[in-house]
Amino acid sequence: MACVPLLSASRLGKPRQQDGSDDSSKQRLWRQGSSSSSSSSASGQRRYRSEENSPNGDDDLTLMSAQSNGSDASGSLPSFIQLDDWVQTDFDASMSRIVGELLLEQISRKRRSYFLTTKDLKIVTRTRSVTSFDTVAEAVQHGTRLLDAAVYFAMPEDMRPPIVYEPLSDRDEQDPSFRQSVVAVTFVALFIFVCGMPPGREIYYSSGDGSGEIEEAVPHLIRDAGFDFRSSVYASRASSFDLCRVAKHTWIKQIIASLDVSLQSALARHVAGYRFAHALTVLPFSAASSTEPDARSAAECVRAFVLRGPVWSMHLATRTTEFQRAVVNMNKNCGNLLLAVYSAHEIKELVASGALPMVPVRDMRYQQWREWDERTFAPFSDWIFER
Predict the structure, then answer these.
(1) What is the model's pTM?
(2) What is the predicted pLDDT for the residue at 269?
(3) Better pLDDT: 273 or 35
């Protein structure tokens, strides 16, 4: 997918903040969940992810559906929490170094369409006389996107791409300020954490004549914080390269770790990759519902693992090879396990309550759950949140 420049305000529609600023003086309070839900249903068509888009082959995609975007009451936070509570870091030298190093690990030296390479970085200046940068903030000030700059300074000097003079044309939108860039990177990190993949960089249309823009769905948990622009704007402000070409988004760990404990608690119920497994913790297992002799034992193991707390090894955007080998496909197996330990009526209750995004479909290719026990999940203790 080719990178695109920031889109003009006329195509994006009028944001709530008329000057496009993310200045802290214009913080907005969280809206209540009921109003969020109604605004979502009235916003028209949205673009949703499909199972085939999942980078790890799992189908934890329904976080993008209206039901799982936090439209229920549990998806809202107290109204006193503001945008700056999320963007509490100044993205200083230490933060940028760690994020840059983690992204640098994902860069391939081979040119492939689905890998990020050094040639994909765009290190630019809007001033012809500027030929070097001393800090990430200085690079952003001169037009380089924040994640590009973070990776640039994490590289050995002999590996860094050249700084290119690229003046803005009359059709280009103004470069984001450093604060706007930090807000954009925070949005992208939260989006990946909740949805398991980066936001799209383009606007899609519902018909050939260019009418009826299809907006990418943004979970209420993120949108109601005060991130007023479309996800494509934040994606373009955060980096010049397509983050979909990053295989594992380990860089978001640093952003999530910098958040206040109260915000981490809110995110704990919205971890991408956990929807089907978490559904096994909601209702008790009844002997009458179970149709498989080993199902209850396996379900108890999954329940104990989930209740210990989410781990990065299982997160959809950072899932490790070791975890993949141990479970093969977590969601497919948990879907079969749900059908084995719960009755059809109980499954419908889980879907109606929002604990399950959809009724699982039995897939006989995924019977690895029959071999699951405590030893299956014991090695994975890279906790997302401090215990």
Answers:
(1) 0.77
(2) 84
(3) 273
- The token pair at 372 is 């699951």
Helix axes 146-154, 93-104, angle to 10 degrees: 80
225 and 184 together in one domain: yes
Q: What confidence score (pLDDT) does residue 72 get? A: 33
Q: Identify the sign of the CA torsion 29, 34, 38, 43.
A: positive
Structural domain count, the chain: 2
Same domain for 248 and 282, yes or no, is no
Last residue of a domain, one of 267, 300, 318: 267
Per-residue model confidence (pLDDT) at position 149:
94
164-165 and 204-205: which strand pairing?
Answer: unpaired
CA distances from 79 to 30, 181, 225, 296 (A): 4, 25, 9, 41
Q: Is the distance from CB of 123 to CB of 148 less than 8 angstroms? A: yes
Q: What are the tens digits of pLDDT across the range 62-104?
A: 333 323 333 333 344 444 456 676 775 567 777 888 999 998 8
Is residue 384 domain-resident?
no
Given 242, 267, 292, the domain boundary residue is 267
Residue 337: inside a domain, yes or no?
yes
203 and 303 inside one domain: no
Residue 183 confidence (pLDDT) above 50: yes
Q: Which amino acid is at 40?
A: S
Greatest alpha-carbon pair distance for the chain in Å reads: 77
140-154 pLDDT tens trace: 999 999 999 999 999
Q: What is the span of the domain harbouring residue 161?
A: 32-267
Q: What pLDDT band is residue 59 in, cutting at 50, 70 and 90?
A: very low
pLDDT tens-digit readout, 230-244 = 888 999 999 999 898
Q: Mean pLDDT, the chain, as a whole number?
A: 76
Q: Which residue has the higher pLDDT, 22 or 334?
A: 334
- Whole-Å CA distances, 275 to 22, 172, 310: 32, 41, 11
In a domain, 1, yes or no: no
Do strands 124-125 and 164-165 pair parallel, antiparallel, or not at all (unpaired)? parallel
Q: Report residue 190 as tokens.
A: 């939260």
Q: Is residue 300 part of a domain?
A: yes
